[in-house]
User: What shape does this take?
Amino acid sequence: MLFNRPLPELTDLDLVRMYRLEGDMNVLGVLFKRYSGLVYGVCLKYLKSREDARDAVMQIYEKLAVSLLNHEVTYFKSWLYATSRNHCLMQLRAQKGKYYEELSPFIVESGEAEHPETGDSLEGNLVKLEHCIEKLGHEQKLCVRMFFLEERCYAEISATTGFAMNQVKSYIQNGKRNLKICMEKDD
Assistant: This one.
């Protein structure tokens, strides 16, 4: 077989080819994880909202499963960047008339000293977040921790927990919504 090495050692092109041949979501997860920071940055730049950007990252990952099978991709990083940008532009087009506050690229890229969530407020939010995570149901708590804290993809979570892929997505989305409600309630 062409792909004898462990997945993380394969090039982007090899992973794309392997995914197109086998349709293995673990392969897609490894490939997407390499650039999830890039995708999040692009989404945050265009959508101006952390929550919207995180949602968009999940939606883009879900689209990749189909798109990669339908498109011949040679330069994955460039293609993913363009796909992410187009996804965000389509979302903005659908939400015309909504007010957005412009974020300076320097704030997004800067260190802790200039970041809007630093020091005591960050510590307080993290404590509050941990408290709210503990309030989630077992399945939501498990999936949310694995996805956001351990940075695992849907396929890895599904394989580890035994939950179906759709259940994992549902637990994460509902858990995220419940966390938001809990965090806002505690304010």
Notes: The two ends are 56 Å apart (CA to CA). The CA atoms of residues 109 and 153 lie 25 Å apart.
